[in-house]
Amino acid sequence: MFAQFRLTPILAAGALALGLSSVAQGQTTTNVNVLDGAGNVIAADVRSFDENEAGSGMALGFTGQQGSTFTFLYQANVVNFNDAFGNVITPTTGLNAAFAGGGYEFTVVASIEETVQSVSTVNGITTVTFEATGGTASIYFDNTASGGAKSVTSTGVGFDDGHLVGTFDIVAGSGLSTFTTFPNGTGIGATIYDFVISGGGVDSDYIVGLLGPINDLHFTSNQNLPVGTSATTSFHNGVSDAGDLYPTTAATGLLLKVDGSNTFTTAIPEPETYALMLAGLGALGFMTRRRRRQS
């Protein structure tokens, strides 16, 4: 016969005092499995999503003055899934192929509020640094069954339709972005920003973390001028299934070529938490035995 264990009000209060009601969490980069929404694995043990080097970015309302604010828009399709060593993982046939022939795609879009932190000019070379203060990034999956249009860089169509896999909120003040322009009109920059999961989490029918639920997205990118093959006439051109989370915007700001990638993290209990849990469970066991003796 098994002894029945109940968390009485006294024991519950003890558990709360011992910190068992909420487990402290650490963050670690996690591999993910990428799926098609129908139970089929597209790519396994994926560490990062590598987005198209012809991804488009636009600084909307940018003035280049310290303290000024602007909105940075981004859109790109995923071209590779990479493992922990940076090697390309061969996905199920059809990535970025025509939907009519069984193709599918993953796209990443973002709208980020940024503030100019500093501006310096030396010998005609100007470097501007930015900090993110708000905004979101989202991942979409699309194929014939998902009902969206295949993405097209030149028009900005098809990046934010299909199935919304997950949305992430920018961590204000995290990371940094810099951009340097040269007298000949060219420019180069880099970005690293952190995002935390928003709303209902990432749809595990499409992306599933191997160490637990996905909590964060870490985004890095290189930016270049001239815009070249990343030229577009609009951003987020299409009807989003997220209720116009990313409204269509004409490409009237500073256009950039953006080569981005992202990795995911998952929350795991920190080592000291395990010790706390064991100590707490031991204390609860002692209290339970003591109460049995007294009854």
Describe this structure in words.
The protein has 295 residues and is mainly β. The protein has 2 domains: 1-24 and 271-295; 26-269, no CATH class. The protein is built from 2 helices and 17 strands. The chain has helices at residues 9-17, 271-294; strands at 25-30, 32-35, 41-46, 48-51, 55-60, 69-82, 88-89, 105-122, 125-142, 163-170, 176-181, 187-198, 207-209, 214-225, 234-235, 249-250, 254-269. Strands 1, 4, 5, 6, 7, 8, 9, 10, 11, 12, 14 and 17 form a 12-stranded antiparallel β-sheet that branches. A 3-stranded antiparallel β-sheet has the order 3-2-13, with no helix packed on it. The longest helix has 24 residues, at 271-294. Residues 1-25, 272-281 and 286-293 have low confidence and may be disordered.
Can you describe this structure in just a few lines?
The protein is mainly β and 295 residues long. Helices cover 11% and strands 47% of the residues.
Write the layout of secondary structure elements.
Blueprint: H1 9-17, E1 25-30, E2 32-35, E3 41-46, E4 48-51, E5 55-60, E6 69-82, E7 88-89, E8 105-122, E9 125-142, E10 163-170, E11 176-181, E12 187-198, E13 207-209, E14 214-225, E15 234-235, E16 249-250, E17 254-269, H2 271-294
